[in-house]
Design a protein that fits this description.
- There is one protein chain.
- Helix content is 70%, strand content 0%.
- It is mainly alpha-helical.
- It is elongated and about 125 Å long.
- Residues 21-26 have low confidence and may be disordered.
Length: 159
């Protein structure tokens, strides 16, 4: 019983941390991180080197991917005549000159370009005519012809 009371009350200064509680043994926490990880010093240093190298490799890959995306954005901006972005140009410069757009993205851009070229050509317009309603097309043509006739009659006294 006395033990229980003594442990509950204990030394009043031990909880404050003023140095009065020196009776406790400190838990064995090694100050060396290698010992904490259960490795020798050389193993721990090798492990740290590997971690740093892997991080640098990931960062370089990430930077390269960002530069590829920036290159694609620059290509699209050139294609659609949009204003250039300094951020993309800086990203490409940081990655170096060896940045290429991924083949998959180039295929997508090329497919879009061929689709647009097809729409701009005469054959593309002919295909659009096939999709239109012929009655509607006839009505538009006749309305345009009658409009031209009325304007011509107003301006020309011979007709």
């Amino acid at each position: 019983m006395a033990f229980l009371i003594k442990s509950m009350i204990g030394n009043p200064l031990s909880g404050i941390g003023l140095g009065g509680g020196g009776d406790k043994e400190e838990e064995a926490t090694p100050s060396d991180p290698a010992k904490a990880a259960g490795m020798t010093r050389e193993e721990y240093e090798e492990y740290q080197k590997q971690v740093v190298e892997e991080k640098m490799e990931r960062d370089a890959d990430f930077l390269h991917k960002k530069a590829e995306r920036a290159t694609l954005r620059v290509c699209l901006r050139d294609k659609y005549r949009l204003p250039k972005s300094e951020q993309d140009e800086n990203m490409i410069e940081m990655a170096g000159d060896d940045v290429d757009v991924p083949e998959e993205l180039l295929k997508m851009v090329d497919e879009d370009a061929t689709e647009e070229e097809g729409k701009d050509s005469i054959l593309g317009q002919m295909q659009n005519l096939q999709n239109m309603d012929m009655d509607q097309l006839k009505e538009k043509a006749s309305a345009t012809v009658t409009e031209l006739k009325t304007k011509a009659e107003e301006k020309c006294t011979v007709m």
